[in-house]
Design brief:
The chain is an alpha+beta fold. It has three helices and eleven strands, in the order βββββαββββββαα. The relative contact order is 0.23.
Length: 172
């Protein structure tokens, strides 16, 4: 289905990672945070870059490069964390580390190039979009993580939140 953009897609946050352009639907992203200091507790999963303290909430920041099977990303001062909306039962936000956010574009500025069903693992890519000769791989946030990965991250996040809460507790 080349040419038509999904009617559900209002806008796209575009970003760069490992020399490639990616995008996420604006509705999937809660906020964009400039690169920040991340806590690195012991026994952290390898796909997690660290824990962001976002207003007292522990937010695991994931290595999107690792999740997508790409080479190691290069994260400079223009790197950002995309804090994702979680439409799953846990309701706990997760962050995605990206090299650079290019901006937000209206969906009608893109042309769909289509994507074969077998073109991505777990259908984590939902479309290839084109704008002025530039191709953007549109990610489906619901499919980037497997159910088991989400559960393990929820368990890890609960532990990180408990550690954060302990830091605010004064010993008697």
């Amino acid at each position: 289905m080349s040419g038509q953009i999904s009617a559900d897609l209002v806008g796209v946050i575009t970003f760069r990672l490992c020399g490639r352009s990616f995008g996420l639907p604006v509705g999937a992203v809660r906020e964009v945070v400039p690169i920040a200091w991340l806590d690195r507790p012991p026994q952290m999963p390898s796909m997690v870059r660290g824990i962001l303290n976002l207003g007292g909430q522990a937010v695991p920041v994931l290595r999107l490069d690792k999740l997508l099977g790409l080479d190691d990303g290069t994260y400079g001062l223009d790197a950002s964390i995309l804090v994702m909306r979680d439409d799953h039962e846990a309701g706990r936000p997760l962050g995605l580390l990206v090299e650079h956010v290019d901006g937000v574009r209206a969906a009608d500025q893109f042309t769909s190039m289509g994507l074969a069903d077998s073109a991505s693992f777990n259908a984590c890519l939902s479309d290839q979009l084109e704008q002025d000769g530039k191709v953007v791989q549109l990610l489906s946030w619901r499919n980037v993580l497997l159910v088991e990965e989400r559960q393990r991250l929820a368990d890890f996040q609960a532990q990180a939140q408990a550690r954060l809460a302990d830091l605010g507790t004064v010993a008697p």
